[in-house]
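Tokens in:
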């Protein structure tokens, strides 16, 4: 997974069923993007760890537009796997 994969990721909007607040998810994706960029540039200091992604929580939505919870959760699972791979490879 590359930093650009994060910026290109799109989630299905939800309405009238639970989703995650778009602003919360977008802000966290920016942090993930910065982390992957740092790994790619070899400057991975003070970056997100896999546990940060596992523990991420977002404001739920129901009657306003949000992102599909399942899609966001699935993508974050991929991010966790990538961060664990990079951490075990000593990319820091």
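Residues out:
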């Amino acid at each position: 997974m590359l930093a650009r994969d994060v910026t290109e990721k799109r989630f299905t909007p939800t309405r009238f069923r639970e989703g995650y607040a778009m602003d919360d998810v977008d802000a966290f994706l920016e942090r993930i993007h910065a982390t992957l960029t740092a790994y790619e540039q070899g400057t991975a200091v003070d970056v997100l760890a896999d546990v940060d992604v596992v523990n991420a929580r977002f404001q739920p939505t129901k009657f306003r537009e949000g992102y599909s919870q399942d899609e966001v959760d699935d993508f974050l699972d991929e991010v966790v796997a990538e961060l664990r791979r990079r951490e075990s490879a000593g990319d820091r």
